[in-house]
Structure formats: C-alpha cells, structure tokens
Amino acid sequence: MTEYDVKDLDLAEVGRSRIEWAAQEMPVLRQIAERFARERPLEGIRIAACLHVTTETANLVRALVAGGAEVVLTASNPLSTQDDVAAALVKYDGVPVYAIKGEDKETYYRHLHAALDHRPHLTMDDGCDLVTLLHKERREELREAFGGTEETTTGVIRLRAMAAAGVLAYPVIAVNDAKTKHLFDNRYGTGQSTLDGILRATNVLLAGKTVVVIGYGWCGRGIASRARGLGANVVVTEVDPLRALEAVMEGFSVTSMREAARVGDVFITATGNQHVIDREHLEVMKDGAILANAGHFNVEINIPALEALAVEKREPRPFVTQYLLADGRRLHLLGEGRLINLAAAEGHPSAVMDMSFANQALSVEYLVRHRDALEPRVYGVPEEIDRRVARLKLEAMGVAIDALTPEQERYLASWEAGT
C-alpha cells in the first residue's frame, strides 16, 4: 500500500484529467520522460521532492518515475497544493504524496518529515525547507543524500548562506539560476500568474489603478510589465540602484516605499525579504488598499503589525481577509500573505513550467551521473543543459534558427582580423 496523506482520493479522476491537460503544454518534459523511460538513468534513486503540488509538478514526478526513480512528494507551501492532483498521483501513479491545501504549520512539517522518512538520495526543493530540516533535525540521514536541486530564488539564497557557513552537506544545483528558468518562469510565469491570482481573488479592474510592485528582480519585472499591459499605473520600489535605474528606463515610476504607500491601490511584493511592507506603510495606505505577495514565504508583508492595527477582520471573499482599522480604513490581505498565484489561482502556465521542470529533470540526471565528482556547494545548471532545454523548446514551438557557418566560427575564434 502506498503511504500518503491527501485530502480525498475521490478527487483523483479530476486530477488525472487536469494533469493530462497540462502535459499537452509541456512537450520538452514529455520528450525527456520518453527518453528516461527507455534509458532508466534514475533506476533505484530515492528522491524526496518538496514542491508546489500542481499539474505541472505531477508531470515532472511522472518523468522521474519513468526514469526509474522512487519519488515521494510533499508540498512546499501550505496553500499551494491542488488536492485533486495529489489524489491522482497517489491513486493512479502510486506516488506517496503528503500534501493538503490549507494544512496548518504542524501538518506541513509533519509532511516534510514523512518525505524524509524515505531516506532520499536526492532532494528537490522549492524554498529550501526540506534541505534545512534535513540539515537541522535529521543529520543522521545526510550520509545517504548525495545531491539536490532548488527551484526558486528564496531557496537559492538560503542555500548559498548554508554553503558560506560551511554547513551544506551535499551539492545542490540552483535550477532557478538557469536562463531557461528565471528569464521565462520568473518573468513571464510569475508576471501572468500573480495577476491571475489577484484577479481571481478580488475581481477588481486594474486599469486606471496604481499598482505598486515592490522589488524589480525578474519576478517584479514580469509583474510590472503585465500590470502595465492591463492599464495600471505602475510604481516600482527598490533597494538596488541598478534595478531601480532599469525600472526608470523602462518607463515606470520609481520612488520610496514610504511615498508609494500613500498612493497605491494594489501592492505586490516580490523581494524574498521580510517586512518590505511594514507598519509605517500600513498606517498611511488608502482605504481599500489590496496587499498581495508573489514571494515564496509569507514574511514580506508584516502580518503581525497588520493584526495589531486592526480592530476587526472578516473574509468578504475566498482568499481575501479584510482588516478594519481604528480610523475606519479597510486593508485587504490576499491569500494569508502567501504566494498569491498558487493560493488563489493555479500557478504558472504549463508552457513556461515545461522549461523549469525540464531543467529539474536533467539536473537530477546530471547529479546521478556526476555524484562522485561534485563538492558540497551550490552549482549552476550546466550550460549544455540550459542550451538543450532552449533548443528543445524552440523545436516544440516550430521555431527555426540559424547556425554559424564554419567561416563565421573561425572569425569569432580569431583575433588577427582588424578594421
């Protein structure tokens, strides 16, 4: 019997249909899965995956299983699980899944421990919670682990801190840093899915509203671009002068958070840092302001400060908590301050996750093949994998590109030619 903890196995048929629908938009991962099924490069490898339990993730898990891996899946965020998908993986694929949408913190960590009970050789993380738990509380099992991958910016930051402190026990590939991941997933995926989550939660019209985007990394770039495309007046706040300058050159208004707090209608955090919306900002926001987070953890908005300011709170819509302040203003927090694209919507479109999860699958294969040559530190995705994913995606889209001629290659490799 497969061990699992999901909401309801009766949801499995709906989940299977949705997984198959997503697969149609994931041709690169499908090609990898077909090769894995032939070659079985992951035979006998135990993988503990702490990822958002979505239709796209299900297709990644199926690809790994096709390659011979024994995979256990747990959620990387309490609100990101799609319960029908979790049920389908258990019922139809025999994958142990520990994930329930809306689970409390105690259940969340119990599920992480359940995944680690499978004694993984490899970890696949999205936010570094699984790796952190393994290093802090399950150190006796580190001797069996020989590698891992990390999906998101926040997790890579934590892993680099671990490596710098000399505590990271095995090599981890930063999938987030692949060009075919962050240039597309973070920008186009987060840009579209964040606004999708906000619109599903609120049904507000963005045209004409002032949308404040806090953080202008790749996720912030995508959010700002899509918000402007919907007719919003976009204001960007930043702490990095280069990113702030880029936002200015892209035509966005850039100002301090203190000033932006007074004019914004919708606030979207995308920094990976804590309390970028703080009490001083909450105290001056407009009546009716909407607060949403696109970052991995629910720390970017100072929720304890919001709770302290409120005299009353209620839920006028699913995924919307309305805080009534003493002066009569109402502030609306979406999705409990958790990443809104998965709390209130379905996450990134399958077509963009195709590339991200192709990187995941190929990085796992790379770790297995090179396990004896890698040191315990954070690695980038090998360039040959990045370029292979890009090439496969173009082919799947029916896009042809040119190749250098031998003469052009010689010219680019030479130094003698002058003016």
What is the fold's blueprint, element by element?
Elements: H1 12-23, H2 27-39, E1 46-51, H3 55-66, E2 70-75, H4 83-93, E3 97-98, H5 105-116, E4 122-125, H6 129-137, E5 147-150, H7 153-164, E6 172-174, H8 179-202, E7 210-214, H9 218-229, E8 233-237, H10 241-249, E9 253-254, H11 257-263, E10 266-269, H12 279-282, E11 289-293, H13 303-309, E12 310-317, E13 320-325, E14 330-334, H14 340-343, H15 350-369, E15 378-380, H16 383-396, H17 406-413
Parallel strand pairs: 1-2, 1-4, 2-3, 4-5, 5-6, 6-15, 7-8, 7-10, 8-9, 10-11, 11-14
Antiparallel strand pairs: 12-13, 13-14
Helix pairs in contact: 1-3, 1-4, 2-3, 2-15, 3-15, 8-9, 8-15, 15-16
Keywords: Cytoplasm, Hydrolase, NAD, One-carbon metabolism
Enzyme class: hydrolase
EC number: 3.13.2.1
What does this structure look like?
The protein is an alpha/beta fold. It has 2 domains: 9-181 and 348-396, Rossmann fold; 188-343, 3-Layer(aba) Sandwich (Rossmann fold), CATH 3.40.50. The chain is 45% helix and 16% strand. The chain contains 17 helices and 15 strands. The chain has helices at 12-23, 27-39, 55-66, 83-93, 105-116, 129-137, 153-164, 179-202, 218-229, 241-249, 257-263, 279-282, 303-309, 340-343, 350-369, 383-396, 406-413; strands spanning 46-51, 70-75, 97-98, 122-125, 147-150, 172-174, 210-214, 233-237, 253-254, 266-269, 289-293, 310-317, 320-325, 330-334, 378-380. An 8-stranded mixed β-sheet has the order 9-8-7-10-11-14-13-12, with helices on both faces. Strands 3-2-1-4-5-6-15 form a 7-stranded parallel β-sheet, with helices on both faces. Strand 13 and strand 14 (330-334) form a beta hairpin. Helix 1 packs across helix 4.
